[in-house]
Write a structure and sequence with these properties.
The protein has two domains: about 165-605, Methylamine Dehydrogenase, Chain H; about 670-775, Sandwich (Immunoglobulin-like). It is about 0% helix and about 35% strand. The relative contact order is 0.11. With about 775 residues, it is an all-beta fold.
Length: about 775
């Protein structure tokens, strides 16, 4: 029985029940053991208090240890204390305990009527619920309970504070000599003339193909094993052959440890190919579509088992390509797009066009999928050729050209005019082109500064004016331009970079601080840089002298040594560890002379101060745009248009992740329902419910500290599961009895004396108690 949680509130009741009937001190007295009567000269043999105390005999009808329980009380035999008699249930509440009515349960100190049964508490990657909109599943109870979420719970980071640090790295560290820490990479320290890591780094085991340590493909992120923590999925290669003989690897996103490696020689990949991940057959398990080194696509299941390879050789036969997954007939299994061809879920080619296939000057195949003509069915965008489809897979599926406009190129889609009609951005042969989505009419062009063919475009609001802008890398400059919605592209800023090798490297965007201006994350041959959406001096009123359209390294938010021979890879922004917060995942390589100064492998960065906003735990393909996949990896039957969803505040972006529906959403962690489990004997177990009243979940790792008024700190336990917004989980501390009971126990959640590990909207409500537990035991 979990009775002792209510002792503080019961103390006045017990005094009345066992020693105060409302009579004078001359009528009722107290013996040495606290229970008794005092003669009054009147016949009291028939006088019995309604509390159960027999004043005529000095006895007690309902004794409980040294106490006498009242008529509405029962003795808790575990703790020898009188508690409110609620039958088979425990009383509910601390300050004013009550018995819950029929159909009610006690939850966070209140009697509530639960909803229906449910299977599990949600987490970062498991967002579907059996509960109603105002409910959440309590996995311990198996019931839908009131959702405690507060949508107004926000935390605004300090302006200008941006401090990425490595969370973990995998691969081979390049020896680097030094005289001081400044000669090393971020967070490395100079020790005895060499740079040394201060974070978790994983070298490749000798039996895990250790020479395949170079990574020049964008890592993808998805929860393959369904454990609420995403994985990082990527191809790696041996420096002797970066185009062939690639090995597909999967690492745990929270630790960087290996989940599995596909080293079978029959299933080797394009070493710089970029996989696509999704639940293609809607069976609840994710599949990986990989680019083989034999000009075929491969399907791998979530456990690393090969499933099929396409019979037909894919068009283009170019390295560093990336498939896309979508449901082209709006029913049945999803399909796979690669170049200008569509494949079914079994790897059969359904249809192939003869025009463009999403390449820029014969370099990598990157196809986009979007509903350009407004018929709810997606089109396949192969650069300057758009293909549209009719019919049903397995019966009469067919495609044709919707329109053609100029040459091939890398694509992105958004609504720049905010009129509900999408525009298509193509980067081709050194030019940024904006075309009308339904017709292909060329609207505007802009030559990439500094030359180069140009990388895949990012689309997002860089300057916070409510309209999307375009960012991409060339050979010597990174450039951001705005479109006036009519016929003109205007440079907002550009910055010096180094990418003579491919001059087609990708980039990504994300609003880390939730200020409405998206930052740019870009890695060239030598460095990883994070640029502000606009130059700092351009944010001043009036603008400062450095607001000159030339973003220098003095103006950027972050720079660190990385290296790459560069193809079309880019850093990925996702919640990789299930903590609901954004991290950066970067691939690195050093086997090319142009990019050889850094390490080889994969690196994950997080914010030192936990200031980065929340985001989704997935980035499933090179042409990721949020609405193409859900957090669990399921492919929508009918995809919402990114430029229209969600209504009122659409994403309207490309190669960008989202921070969710509420800007700067934050958690609010509190303790509730502090009690004991079982009898208080030589060993005692304290239990408390940890609840998140905010609008952003937290991952595992919340410290919960127990203390006692006389005996001090009792111990700290750490939560092992995520706590979603509005939900609770219970934790227990089992220990030797700290001394003589009763115990005045308090609990503190996420508070190390310096604000704790999590930025919350309310920081002064992390403590609960004291609550008297284990009374009369000693």
């Amino acid at each position: 029985m979990r009775r002792s949680v209510f002792v503080l509130a019961l103390a006045p009741t017990l005094l009345f029940a066992c020693g105060d009937s409302g009579a004078s001190d001359d009528d009722v007295g107290t013996s040495e053991d606290g229970i008794g009567t005092e003669a009054t000269g009147e016949d009291s043999s028939s006088s019995t208090l309604d509390t159960g105390l027999d004043t005529g005999t000095g006895g007690c009808d309902n004794p409980c240890g040294d106490e006498c329980c009242g008529g509405d009380e029962v003795c808790d035999e575990d703790n020898l204390v009188c508690v409110l008699d609620c039958g088979d249930d425990d009383p509910c509440g601390v300050d004013d305990p009550v018995c819950c009515g029929g159909g009610e349960i006690c939850y966070v100190g209140q009697c509530v009527t639960p909803g229906g049964a449910c299977s599990e508490l949600s987490c970062a990657t498991q967002t579907e619920s059996d509960c109603e909109e105002d409910e959440i599943c309590d996995g311990e109870l198996g019931l839908c309970v009131p959702n405690l979420v507060n949508e107004a719970c926000t935390f605004t980071p300090e302006e200008g504070v941006f401090d990425p640090i490595p969370r973990w790295t995998w691969g081979a560290r390049q020896p680097r000599s030094c005289d001081a820490d400044a000669d090393c990479q971020k967070e490395e320290v100079c020790t005895e003339g060499s740079c040394a890591v201060t974070w978790t780094h994983h070298e490749i085991a000798d039996d895990d193909w250790p020479t395949h340590v170079q990574v020049m493909a964008a890592p993808m992120v998805a929860d393959l094993d369904g454990d609420c923590v995403p994985e990082v999925i990527f191809n790696s290669y041996d420096p002797s052959d970066w185009q062939n003989d690639g090995i597909l690897r999967v690492l745990h996103g929270d630790t960087g440890e290996k989940l599995w490696t596909l080293g079978d020689e029959a299933w080797r990949s394009d070493g710089t190919g970029i996989p696509a991940i999704g639940d293609i057959d809607y069976d609840g398990d994710l599949e990986i579509v990989n680019v083989g080194d034999d000009s075929h696509l491969h399907l791998i299941d979530h456990e690393g088992n090969p499933v099929w390879t396409t019979v037909d050789v894919y068009a283009g036969n170019q390295t560093s390509g990336a498939p896309a997954i979508a449901n082209f007939d709006l029913q049945g299994d999803a399909e796979i797009a690669y170049g200008r061809a569509i494949y079914d879920s079994d790897g059969n080619e359904l249809w192939a066009g003869e025009g463009g296939f999403g390449s820029n000057a014969s370099y990598a195949v990157l196809s986009c999928v979007a509903d350009l003509d407004g018929d709810s069915r997606p089109e396949l965008i192969g650069g300057g050729t758009v293909y549209t489809f009719t019919g049903t897979v397995g019966t009469d599926f067919a495609g044709e050209v919707l329109w053609e406009s100029g040459g091939d190129g890398y694509c992105g889609v958004a609504d720049f005019q905010l009129d509900g009609v999408p525009e298509l951005v193509l980067v081709r042969q050194g030019s940024i082109d904006v075309l009308d989505g339904p017709t292909g009419t060329l609207l505007a062009q802009f030559e990439i500064p500094g030359g180069g063919m140009g990388g895949p475009p990012n689309i997002a609001d860089f300057d916070g004016d409510g309209f999307p802008d375009i960012g991409l890398a060339g050979g010597a400059r990174y450039v951001v331009v705005s479109f006036d919605g009519v016929d003109t592209l205007t440079k907002l800023w550009d910055a010096e970079t180094k990418d003579v090798s491919s001059n087609r490297t990708g980039s990504s965007v994300f609003d880390f601080d939730g200020d409405g201006r998206n930052e740019v994350i870009y890695g060239d041959e030598w460095y990883l840089r994070i640029y502000p959406g606009v130059e700092p001096d351009c944010q001043l009123d009036p603008p400062g002298a450095a607001c000159d359209q030339d973003m220098t390294d003095d103006e950027i938010l972050f720079i660190d040594i990385t290296s790459s021979g560069t193809r079309v890879e880019y850093p990925v922004i996702a919640d990789v560890d299930g903590d609901f917060k954004a991290e950066i995942v970067v691939s690195t390589n050093n086997n090319f002379s142009e990019g050889s100064i850094g390490d080889s492998g994969v690196e994950v960065f997080e914010d030192r101060l936990d200031n980065w906003v929340g985001t989704l735990p997935i980035w499933n393909q090179h042409t990721y745009h949020i609405t193409n996949v859900d957090a669990k990896g399921s492919i929508p039957i009918v995809e919402d248009n990114n430029w229209e969803y969600p209504a009122g505040s659409p994403y309207n972006s490309y190669r960008r992740n989202t921070q969710g529906g509420v800007e700067n959403c934050a958690p609010d962690l509190v303790a509730q329902d502090l009690t004991t489990v079982g009898a208080c004997q030589s060993e005692v177990t304290f239990s408390v419910r940890v609840c998140n009243q905010g609008c952003l979940g937290v991952g595992p790792g919340v410290d919960v500290s127990f203390s006692e008024a006389e005996f001090g700190a009792l111990g700290t336990v750490t939560t092992e599961a995520a706590i979603p917004a509005g939900g609770c989980i219970s934790v227990e501390l089992t220990m030797d009895a700290p001394g003589t009971a009763p115990y005045d126990v308090s609990v503190t959640v996420d508070d190390d004396g310096d604000g704790g590990a999590f930025n919350e909207c309310v920081e002064d409500n992390n403590s609960f108690g004291p609550v008297e537990l284990c009374p009369n035991i000693g």
